[in-house]
Structure formats: structure tokens, C-alpha cells
Amino acid sequence: MRDDEVLAAVRALAPALRERATEAEALRRVPDPSVEELEGAGFFRLLRPRAYGGLAADPAVFYAAVHEIAKACGSTGWAAAVLGVHPWYVAQFDAKAQEEVWGTDAAIRICSSHAPTGKVTPVDGGYRLSGRWHFSAGCDHARWALLGGLVTDAEGRPVDMLTFLVPRADYRVDDVWDTVGLRGSGSNDLVVTDAFVPAHRTLGYGPVTALRCPGHDLHPDPLYRLPYAAVFTTAVSTAMVGIAEGAHEDQVTAARERLRAAPGGWAAPGPRVAEDPFAQVRIARAAGEIDAARLQLARNMAELYALARRGAEIPRELRARTRRDQALATERALTAVDLLMENAGRGPLSVGDDVLQRAWRDLHTGRGQAANDVDRALVLYAQDALGMDAQDPML
User: Is pLDDT of 266 > 60?
Assistant: First the structure.
């Protein structure tokens, strides 16, 4: 299966994913048939290493597929983006860890919760891990989890930040996800009680940031020489931009036929929304915000991938710009949908199954993801541009 065949197969699934959007919200997780169809289309193979049946694809193909899924169903797009990016991350781990995950079943999916909220205790050969991790999108469809944790010294001061790779037998899913938006993403809590994690199933943020991971000795593809922060944050931003574009397409179609309420409460119907110049301006502005977001995300990832293919060093200023544009993309997606809401009349304000209302709820929920903190990303960019020593694990 080639990259382009996967993208075509994902596009062909869009009607079914769109049809299940309401079901996803009711279930509070992605419906099983949607995950199975994405698996059959090859979506989860895109960023998986070739050694384990993956495609090690050009990241542009992966992000294009995420965009198409999110256009059809925001919750499915968000969960797919997160689940789909994790094979890339596991490919950075020690060879023994990768074999434990994929050795018997290459189609295993991995969820995550990277905020270091648990308790980490160093022991011989590894660590003991306990705690609760929040917002693990798609976790009902995963058999392994990537969990963040801080290692501290005797005085309780952080000395290292690690990602722990934990099998499903060592954690439980606590069904707590009941939100206004992204309801179908199934972003439940993961609970670990005194699990042993061997050292080979941990990965420090230092090696990840420096692009010197154990997995580099196994997988020569340039895909695995990209910065983690860029790969992960672009995934969730792409999902948000896809949600906005899906809402825009829906509203443009509706505006062609929908009538405005007559001014002053006249009995006769008003003009078609499509004939309203103020509606036209909002539609155009929303499209401009979506296009700007897509173009910036694509430009940055294309430049990163070109450098990785040449084996060249990835400059810090490009990393900072990627984080800046990734966060701004989420802001642009929100702006676009807010403009469309101003233009939509009463329909999306009523309780019910409305594409624009769902997109508005999904985007305002997704905006709360830590990677989408616009001000933090802008400060990092400005500090780097001003020659300051900006330090952040997401740069």
C-alpha cells in the first residue's frame, strides 16, 4: 500500500465518519467501526516504521489524512491524530521496547497523556509508577500508553522528565470524559497503581529534543529525525483546522439556500443568505483564516522534512516558528468558526445535531489542550528571535 492509496482510502471513508458523528458524541468515544475502517485504510500505518509493517510516510500525507478525518467528524479526527502520531514516538524508543509493543501485533495502537502528573520512584532496573493521567484521547482503542513523569532528587527537585511506555495490563481507563466539545474523542483518565516500568521502556525529553534517540539506530527514514514538538503539535492543530474547514463547507452549502429573516418581522421571507454582502464577508474571512493556517502548517513541516531528508541540522528558529504557527493555527480555526456562527442565525443555537454547533464546541474544547496555548508559543518564538535562552520541552 502506498501513501497516496492510504489518503484516497481515508477520503472515501469521510461520508461514513460524518454519518457517525452524532453516535460518537452519544458514546463519548470513537465508534468501533470508524477505528476499524481507519485501520483497514492504512491510516495507522502511515507513521509506523517499515520494520513493523508501517509506511514511514512523508508526514504531509499523514497530516492531509488527519485533516480529511477531522472535516468529517471532529472527535474522530482529534483521536485519530493522537493515536496516529504515537507510532512515530514509539519508534524513538529502545529496540526492546518497540519489539514488546509491535513484535506480536504490529496493529497495536498507543494512547498517551504526557503531562507529568504521576509519582515516579527510581528502583533497580527502572521505575515504579503510580498516579492518574488525564485527557488520553482514543484510549479505549489502545493497548499501550505513553505517560509523562518527573524524576526528582532526594529533596523533591525535578532532575529529569521521562515518557513511560506502559502496557494495558498496568493501567485502567477511568470513564470520566463528559464534556461540551470533542465528546466523541474518548479522552478518559488513565490510572496506574505501582507499576514497574523497566528502563528500556522510558525515554527522556533531553534525547528527544536533541534528536538523539535509541530508535534512530533502527530506522533510517528521515521521518524519525523530526522534532517531537513539531510532529505532535502539528497533529492536533491540523485536526482543529480540519474541523473548521468542515464547518465552513457545511455553512457555504447551507447559505446558498437559507433565507434571512425579514427585517422588522415582516411576514414575507427575507433575501437568501448568499445575497447578503455581510454574510459574504464573513464567509470569505473564515476561508482566509483556514487557508492561512493550512499553508503555514504545511510550509513548516515541508521545510523540517526537507532538512531531515538531507541529514541537515534543524535550526532552532525553525522549531520556534513551527510552534508559533501551530498555536496560531488553532486560533485561526477558532476565529473562522466564530465568524461562521455570527453568520448562521438561530439554527446552531438550538439544541440538536448541527454541524457548525458541534464544530464550535469541538474547537473551543480543543483550544484548551496545552500545546495550543497561543501566548506561551508566541513568547517562546519572541524569546528565540530576541536572542534569549528560551527553554521548553515543546520547542
Answer: no
